[in-house]
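Need a sequence for this fold. Nothing fancy.
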């Protein structure tokens, strides 16, 4: 039973390494979301930011 669990964990680690090598940019989100220049929060919709400062 210990051998099966160990083998399963090794196989899962190898699959994770191959997945990371194959698709390196999957964790980063660079979709062009607008953010407030002063506080860094994402701006949703056409309105400004809640902080009241520059919302561009």
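Here you go.
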């Amino acid at each position: 039973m210990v051998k099966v669990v160990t083998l399963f964990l090794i196989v899962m680690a190898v699959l994770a390494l191959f997945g990371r090598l194959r698709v390196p940019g999957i964790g980063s989100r660079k979709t062009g979301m607008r953010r407030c220049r002063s506080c860094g929060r994402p701006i949703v919709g056409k309105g400004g930011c809640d902080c009241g400062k520059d919302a561009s």
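For context: The chain has a mean pLDDT of 79.
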